[in-house]
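Reopening: MFS transporter still failing for me.
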Amino acid sequence: MPIPSSSSRAWFLGLIFHTVIAHATYNGVRVLISYRTLELGGSGVVLGLMTACYSLVPLLTALFVGRLVDRGYATAVLWTGTILSIVPVGLAALAPNLGVLLIATMSLGLGQLLTTVASQALIPQSFPASALTSKFGFLTLGVSIGQTIGLPVAGMIADSTDGSPHIVGALWFMTGVSALTLVAAVIVMLRGRTPHVSRADAAKDARTPWSLLSIRGMKPAILASMTTLAAVDLMTAYLPLIGQQNGLSVTTVTWLLTLRTLASVISRLIIGVLTRRWHNLSLLWTASALAGVCIILIPVFTQPWALAILLLISGFCFGLTQPLTMTWVSTLSDPANRAAVLSIRLAGNRLSQVAIPSAASLLTLIAGSGIVFTISGALLLAAGGVTLRNHREKW
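Support: Ran it again with your exact input. Result attached.
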């Protein structure tokens, strides 16, 4: 049920602020945890384990968290996620061994899941369907801004003039930054309390994950989201290698990736305007397909100006895909299962971030680094095609 407009602006701004700070924390701290792992004697295998465990916990708990939110506990989940976005960062700084650091990593991954599910679910619970894409656009804009500032801030604090990075000090600094989410969470409380639904009543309307996935349109929406996030991860991981092979400096590659992020910010700023002119699914299949073509061309056109154009276009498209798929899945389900379908979408995202890069990296052993972009682009084209078919069948 939409809330009164007099209070919607304040709490929603608080939610955006919370999203910016939280994702700045996640993005910066994950890199610092990698360096902390190496400081504590971890190998490349241990780094992989840390990364997998960060995504594994959300993958296993996403649906349970979604059910809690559907029962009216969104703000409680947000508060729990907020605490788990602060305490694990300090624990990583204090960690005397890799076991404690692993616990901190898993806790931070759970914190990200909790804050993300609660934040996304509050939007369809609070605004009419006509406003969902615009609101999700602002929410994901907050994610992009947080991701953009988190890593450089953490890097600057960890950097030192004596050539020895101060990782523990940087982790304590990021603990302080993450504590600002407590202020934001208080502002979100201005929204008011959502009535709770008993477990018995919720069970009457709850649908199984397979039943939710069988809803027409659910699989294409999740596929579009999965392929986009995997493409972002693969581009971030392998563009430096393409740059190195073609004589591009680290600075050039960094700026190219920054252009991609800025393009996503721009598309999320204007997504409300775009959806008033074009149907959501038309935008989604176009964005997936266009991004797929650009990514396939990255190993082909390696001049800096050409890569800049390809990353600007793909980044703009990436920025559209996430809020559009959030709107799509949240409108496909009934209100009693909205957070559940958003959680399934998030679980799919986590699965793609583990499975697709792992498979692509194995193929590089026999086909070279360019195959990563070919696979990623082909998956995006396939997602665009499936979305287009669904759109045509609907209309």
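The first helix runs from residue 5 to 39. If you still see a failure, please send the error message rather than a screenshot.
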